[in-house]
Design a protein that fits this description.
CATH architecture of the largest domain in chain A: 3-Layer(aba) Sandwich
Family (chain B): Belongs to the binding-protein-dependent transport system permease family.
Main location (chain B): membrane
Membrane topology (chain B): Multi-pass membrane protein
Helix content of chain A: 10-25%
Number of strands of chain A: 20
Oligomer: heterodimer
Helix content of chain B: over 70%
CATH class of the largest domain in chain A: Alpha Beta
Number of helices of chain B: 13
CATH superfamily of the largest domain in chain B: MetI-like
Strand order of the largest sheet of chain A: 6-7-8-3-9-10
Order of helices and strands of chain B: HHHHHHHHHHHHH
Shape of chain A: elongated
Protein name (chain B): Carbohydrate ABC transporter permease
Subcellular location (chain B): Cell membrane
Radius of gyration of chain B: 24 Å
C-alpha cells in the first residue's frame, strides 16, 4: 500500500504544447482513484507520468513520500495494465506473468507460487501454458492483470483496460477489477473515458479537461454538485440538459425560452443570464395534472427498463432529454406536462461556466 | 451492383493476377530447370537435345564426378557458405540494433542518420570497387574471406536497416513500456522482446542479404581470386574456357550450388509467412 502525491505536476512537450497544467492531488492508501475525461484531456499523460513513462516537466510526483521524478518505471514499484493488453506474444501466459518477477530476481519456487495464486484468483489456471493469441480478449486482459498483481506493487495503474472488450464483458471485468482491488487493497489509479466505469469504480473521481483537473470528489458528489458546465455535461448519461435562462425580477423562478418558467430556491440576483442544467432523470411526468412545464415529443427511444424522450422546449432545434422508468409509447407531437423540484435544478454562470 | 457481380469481378481479377504470376514464375524457373536436367545428361545429349529430359540412353553423372573429383568443390562450397552465413549474422545483428536505435530513441540527428544510411541503398557499392580494392590491399586483407565479409556487410546494411526500422515502428509502444514497467533493461527488451517479434522481418532481410552474396562474382573475382579462397561462383569459372567449355561440369556445379541457398531460403521463408505479433495487442 502506498500514497501517491502530485504537487503542481506539469507536462510540457518539446513542441511547447502544455498537456498537463499543474495538478495537485493526494491519493490515499488503498484508494481507487479514477481519472476521467474526453480524449486528449491529458488523463493518460498524467497516468504515464505517475508510471514514469513520461517525464515530468515541472512539479513533483511522490510515491510514499519519496519524490520519483527521476526514478525509472521499474524502480517505482508500480504495475501498469494497458488498453491493448501489451502481452508478450511469444511467451506463454505463465511466462508473461512470471517475467517481471524473474527480472526482479525472485526465486523459481516463489515465482511459481505467486503466478499460480494469481491464476487461481483470475481463473486462468487452465490457460497458463497457452500463448496470449489463443485466448479471448477478456482472458488476455485477465493475464495482463495477473502480470500486474503477481508483482504486489505499491500502485496499480490502469490505462483504459476495458475499452477493447465488448459491452457485456466490460461489465463483468469492471466488477472483477473492483472486487480484486478491494481484496488486495492496493492503491490504484484508473484512466477511462467511460463515465459509467468512472462512477462505479471510483472511490474518488477526477474529471479532467484540457490538462486541468476540473473537479475532484466522490462520484456521487460530482454527480449531485458538478462545479462546472463541463463536469455537469460529462458526468451522467444521457447528458444533462442545458437551457439558456434568465432569472426573473422577483428571483423566485428562472425563465427558459419564451414560455417555460421553473421555480428556484437559489440565491441569485434578478435579471442575471444563467445556464440551467437539468438531468434527464430529474423531470417528473405529471400525467393529466397540469405541470408547470409543457413540451411536445420529438422522438422516443425505448430501452425496455426506461424510455428516453426527446422534447421540443421551444428553444430552437435543441432537444431536451427526458428519462422515464418503464416503457411508454408517445406519438410524435404529444404534449407532455412535466414538473421539476427546485433542488434538482443546477445553475451555471453562462460566461464562466462555474456553478452558482 | 449485386454481391454476385462483385464476387465475379474478384474472381476474374484473381485469375488475371495468378495468370501473370504463374507466367513469371515459369519464365524465371525455366532456365534453372534446364540447368538441372542438363546436368544429368551426357555432353552429346546436351547439345543434341538441350530441352529433353535425360533418359536411359542419355543419363550420365559425368559432370558431377568431374566436379567432385577434379576440382576443390568442397573448398569453394565452404568458402561461399562461410562468407554468406557470417555476413548474414553480422548484418542482422548490426542492422537490428541500428534500426532499434533509430526507431525507438529520439536523439539529435536521428533523421539525418537514417537518411544517410538510406543513401547506401541508392548508390551501388560496385561504383567504389577501385577504392575498396585499394583499401583491402592496404589492410593486407587481399585473398581473404574477411575482405569479402566486410564488403558484403557494408553492402547489406543499408537495406537491412531500412526494412527493419519500418518493422520496428510497427511494434506497439505499449509492449516496450510494459517491459520497462516489468523492470526489463533496454538490452534485454531488445533481445528478449523485440527481436522475437520481428522474426519475420529478420527472415526477409536474411533472404535479401543472402542471395546477392551467394550469387556474386565481382567481389570474389577482385578481392579473393587466389587458390583456396574462391567462392563457388568463381570456382565454376574454371570449367568455362576461352575455346572449350565443360558444360557437364558447369551445369553440375551450378545445380549443386542451388542446394544450400535453397535450404537457407526454406529455413527463413517459414518465418516469412508467420505473423508473430498476433495476440500481442488486439
Amino acid at each position: 500500500m502506498a500514497t501517491v502525491t502530485l504537487n503542481q505536476a506539469e507536462k510540457t512537450y518539446a513542441n511547447g504544447y502544455k498537456a498537463i497544467h499543474g495538478i495537485n492531488l493526494e491519493i490515499q492508501h488503498g484508494e481507487f482513484t479514477v481519472l476521467v475525461g474526453p480524449s486528449g484531456c491529458g488523463k493518460s499523460t498524467l497516468l504515464r507520468m505517475i508510471a514514469g513513462l513520461e517525464s515530468i516537466s515541472d512539479g513533483e510526483i511522490s510515491i510514499d513520500d519519496k519524490v520519483v521524478n527521476k526514478v525509472a518505471p521499474a524502480d517505482r514499484d508500480i504495475a501498469m495494465v494497458f488498453q491493448n493488453y501489451a502481452l508478450y506474444p511469444h511467451m506463454s501466459n505463465y511466462n508473461n506473468m512470471a517475467y517481471g518477477l524473474r527480472n526482479h530476481g525472485h526465486s523459481k519456487s516463489e515465482i511459481d507460487s505467486k503466478v499460480r495464486e494469481a491464476a487461481r484468483i483470475l481463473q486462468l489456471e487452465d490457460h497458463l501454458e497457452r500463448k496470449p493469441s489463443q485466448l479471448s480478449g477478456g482472458q488476455r486482459q485477465r493475464v495482463a492483470m495477473g502480470r500486474a498483481i503477481v508483482r504486489q506493487p505499491k500502485v496499480f495503474l490502469f490505462d483504459e483496460p476495458l475499452s477493447n472488450l465488448d459491452a457485456k464483458l466490460r461489465v463483468d471485468m469492471r466488477l472483477e477489477i473492483k472486487n480484486l482491488q478491494q481484496r488486495l487493497g492496493i492503491t490504484s489509479v484508473y484512466v477511462t473515458h467511460d463515465q459509467v466505469e468512472a462512477m462505479t469504480l471510483a472511490d474518488r473521481l477526477i474529471v479532467m479537461n484540457g490538462g486541468v483537473a476540473e473537479q475532484i470528489g466522490s462520484p456521487i458528489d460530482i454527480y449531485e454538485k458538478p462545479e462546472t458546465l463541463f463536469v455537469a455535461g460529462f458526468i451522467g448519461s444521457p447528458a444533462m440538459n442545458f437551457l439558456p435562462g434568465k432569472v426573473s425580477d422577483d428571483r423566485t423562478h428562472v425563465v427558459v425560452g419564451d414560455k417555460v418558467k421553473l421555480d428556484l430556491d437559489h440565491d441569485v440576483e434578478a435579471g442575471r443570464n444563467v445556464t440551467v442544467g437539468i438531468r434527464p432523470e430529474h423531470f417528473r411526468l405529471c400525467g393529466d395534472d397540469a405541470g408547470p412545464v409543457s413540451a411536445s415529443v420529438r422522438m422516443v427511444e425505448s430501452l425496455g427498463a426506461e424510455t428516453l424522450v426527446y422534447l421540443d422546449f421551444g428553444i430552437g432545434n435543441e432537444n431536451v432529454t427526458l428519462r422515464v422508468q418503464g416503457t411508454h409509447q408517445f406519438a410524435k407531437g404529444t404534449v407532455l406536462k412535466l414538473s421539476i423540484t427546485p433542488d434538482m435544478i443546477h445553475l451555471f454562470d453562462t460566461e464562466t461556466g462555474k456553478r452558482i | 451492383m449485386s454481391f454476385k457481380n462483385i464476387r465475379r469481378e474478384d474472381a476474374s481479377r484473381a485469375v488475371i493476377v495468378h495468370g501473370i504470376l504463374l507466367t513469371y514464375t515459369l519464365v524465371a524457373l525455366y532456365p534453372i530447370f534446364l540447368v538441372v536436367i542438363n546436368a544429368f545428361k551426357t555432353r552429346k545429349a546436351i547439345f543434341r537435345d538441350p530441352m529433353g529430359f535425360p533418359n536411359a540412353e542419355t543419363f550420365s553423372l559425368e559432370g558431377f564426378t568431374k566436379v567432385l573429383a577434379k576440382s576443390n568443390f568442397e573448398v569453394f562450397f565452404y568458402n561461399s557458405f562461410t562468407v554468406t552465413v557470417i555476413t548474414i549474422a553480422i548484418v542482422l545483428l548490426l542492422a537490428a540494433m541500428a534500426a532499434w536505435a533509430l526507431s525507438e530513441y529520439k536523439f539529435p540527428g536521428n533523421t539525418v542518420l537514417a537518411l544517410y544510411l538510406a543513401i547506401g541503398i541508392m548508390v551501388p557499392i560496385r561504383l567504389g570497387s577501385v577504392s575498396i580494392l585499394n583499401l583491402i590491399v592496404d589492410l593486407g586483407l587481399i585473398n581473404t574471406l574477411t575482405a569479402l565479409v566486410l564488403v558484403y556487410v557494408a553492402q547489406g546494411l543499408p537495406l537491412a536497416i531500412f526494412i527493419l526500422t519500418e518493422f520496428m515502428h510497427q511494434i506497439p509502444k505499449d509492449l516496450k513500456e510494459a517491459a520497462r514497467c516489468d523492470g526489463v533493461g533496454e538490452f534485454k527488451i531488445f533481445f528478449a522482446v523485440i527481436l522475437p517479434l520481428i522474426r519475420p522481418a529478420v527472415a526477409t532481410v536474411a533472404v535479401f542479404t543472402m542471395i546477392p552474396i551467394w550469387n556474386d562474382l565481382w567481389f570474389p573475382l577482385i578481392l579473393a581470386p587466389g587458390d583456396g579462397k574462391q567462392t563457388i561462383t568463381l570456382g565454376v569459372q574454371q570449367f568455362i574456357g576461352q575455346y572449350v567449355t565443360d558444360w557437364n561440369a558447369v551445369l553440375a556445379s551450378l545445380s549443386l550450388a542451388i542446394i544450400p541457398i535453397l535450404i537457407l531460403y526454406l529455413i527463413f521463408s517459414r518465418q516469412l509467412i508467420r505473423g508473430l505479433t498476433s495476440g500481442a495487442v488486439k
